[in-house]
Amino acid sequence: MSWKRVLWILWVANFCTATGIGMILPFLPLYIEDLGVKDVSDIALWTGFIFSAQSFTSIIFQPLWGSLADRFGHRMMLMRAGIMGSLITILMGFAGAPWHLLVLRMTNGIFSGFIPMSISLQSLVTPQEHAGRAMGTLHTGSTAGILIGPLIGGVLAGIFGFRMVFILTGVMSLIATIIVGVYVKNDKPQKKLEKDHGTKNKGWGEMLPLVPIFVATAITTIATMSIQPIIPIYATSIYTGVHVELIAGLVISISGIGTLISSPILGRLGDHFGHRTILIVSLIMCGITFIPQVLTSSIVILLISRFFLGLFIGGMIPSLNSLIKTHAPSHMQARAHGLNSSSRSIGSLIGPLLGSLVSASLGFSYVFFITMGLLFINALFVMLNRSLKQPTVTIDKEEMSV
Q1: Is 368 inside any structural domain?
Q2: Domain assignment present for 201
Q3: Residue 193 maps to a domain
Q4: What does the pLDDT look like over 240-278, one tens digit per residue?
Q5: What residue ranges in 143-221 does DSSP mark as E strands?
Q6: Three-class SS of residue 150?
């Protein structure tokens, strides 16, 4: 199949999946409160644990699913992740206590990985000179879903309650799975590629040059996820007017607008100037945007700051995915993206726990300062790692305008 055709099919599927995710995750603190937890510190702690639970099991299983995708094809793994994720999410709508959500999120981590697997498939079929463009465009699918999801979730939660939102989220994930099952053909498994091209799998040792990318991914995710559990609570501490759920959703979503705008542009600039350069600049600028967020007492300033945060987040994730595409062997792309997904899971495990514990013990402002520090440290780490340099590709003006 054409890489562009695969790109747009996966874009739609990722959009559906991410919309479903965006409909529930930002409102976990409010759902936990609805389940009977009333103390703000307890809500923050439960939110951190539930956020991180899926990541705990994902760390172990993502490389396994990646290895199986290399051997048997990505389509089967995408179907597996989508169907199981849909069923588990629907069950979350019937939770009777916070620990039910915790167990279900851990179970979901075993079978999750739809979006990472789609990134791996797109990376496999895309020519190197278009990697940044493809990764950036694909990222806008999940970003658009995360952007729209909280707004839809906020409206639906206000009308039908949180439980119905979980059921609808499961349906959205199932739609994404059906789209892939119908329109995406299975790729050649690893053994077939080795036979065709005369290559031989040398094992996991081939992943060692990618370790700096995995480390950078983990630190980036810790930084961005540490703030997630407290953003809805932080927004409602600043804004006390009507339609609190909708405003909380807007605060979360507005960074997605920035990412949606910038991700394809920064992806193509990465193809031209190098994804390492774009990553460094994005990390530094993301850190700077947290300064007005922590200092403000105005919901307007918070919204503007988070929009600019989203602009530079648009240069981080696609750059890391493109670096994987550049440095990973072609017959181990799924395994490489699986390990990178595990790195994100490590960050998603540590980040929310860190944010929740710090906010509960020291206050919201310390979470922002820690996040800034992690982003600056990561920028320095990437800057000092010359092994992440790559050949740049000349892109003419006509292509940049497409």
Answers
A1: yes
A2: no
A3: no
A4: 777 776 777 788 778 878 888 888 888 888 888 888 889
A5: none
A6: helix
